[in-house]
Specification:
This protein is α+β, with helices and mostly antiparallel strands. It has one domain. It contains two helices and two strands. Strand 1 and strand 2 form a beta hairpin.
Length: 74
């Protein structure tokens, strides 16, 4: 489900990320990406075990670089 909120920048230039959103990713580090006319925000996941079974792959390729490409495409 997609949620949209509007946040104002405070006097120190900060934008607050809602607590329930931060809790969902269990991290206090986020990656900000500037793309043309928008900013994208991604949680920095340091514990990769949270990603187990998060992506379905029909079969594992013998080439791990190919697996990496498939994962990034998803």
């Amino acid at each position: 489900m997609e949620r949209v909120v509007i946040k104002r920048v405070d006097s120190q230039g900060r934008i607050i990320i809602p607590k329930e959103w931060r809790d969902k990713f269990n991290t206090d580090e986020f990656i900000l990406v500037l793309k043309d006319d928008r900013i994208e925000l991604y949680p920095r996941v340091s514990n990769l075990t949270k990603l187990i079974d998060s992506i379905n792959v029909e079969e594992l390729p013998s080439d791990w670089h190919e697996l990496k490409r498939k994962v990034y495409r998803l």
